[in-house]
């Protein structure tokens, strides 16, 4: 099983045996793992952020660790350090929890900026430096960091450089009433239901093979121009102090290709990019002081950008909009 759409469907079905209503989040995590991305997962307490990360790791067969971020966690607690062994009279390397395929940094904004920065090299270069020695991290490597948007006391806001290294920011929403009822029934039948209830359904080799498939997805020049227009609009918006970086443009490219692949297509369409505007950009934009004081939100700015930047084909006639997408080029349906 190397087809990205089959891998996504298999992972989603397995995770759904425990959690309900997390399809969009599972899609986002699948996109990230197929494109070497990292995910910032935000939500109020009790919406199963950490459980989802553990379920995803278990279903995908990735070796995973969890770091509970607190103010007293040190960089060495994350990356590792050299420990002196009296029995041998030598220093021995003790690897930290970052040496795993999938690392869950729980409540990342409770760690101090110094500890947060210990993840910068790991996220970008996929390596860490301990005592002057540079060590490669396992492949694949993915960081899922959770944070709570309502408890700000005792937290440290992530710096822009670190936020930019997260490919996507996903939001875990509260379940609706129907989902809540299903959840109650499910855990009433099995109070111990958790990550141990599901099995590994994908191998690492299959994930890496699916990555190669995603890399071959076709992106038309018009779609690339649409990405560049979106990024430029963030930099030109008067409410934005610092707009999206080139890394954000690459995130659009990679995630759009993965979304197309898990939806069974070999080419990207504008809707792939449009659906990713919020998760790719919402954590990257820095609003101006006037905008912040004027109660302008990042969501407001993204709404303006989405409405103001027209995707390819939006000015076509209704007949042209029914055209089929052939290898990335619009052609009339015969």
Automatic annotation (TrEMBL):
Molecular function terms, GO-annotated: ATP binding; ATP hydrolysis activity
Keyword field: ATP-binding, Nucleotide-binding
SMART domains cross-referenced by the UniProt entry: AAA
PANTHER family tied to this protein: METHANOL DEHYDROGENASE REGULATOR, MOXR FAMILY PROTEIN
AAA+ ATPase domain location: 35-176
Protein name: ATPase AAA
Keyword Ion transport (UniProt): no
UniProt cross-references to Pfam families, sorted A to Z: AAA_3, AAA_lid_2
SUPFAM superfamilies, per the entry: P-loop containing nucleoside triphosphate hydrolases
Chain intervals for the UniProt region annotation (Disordered): 307-334
Organism: Halococcus salifodinae DSM 8989
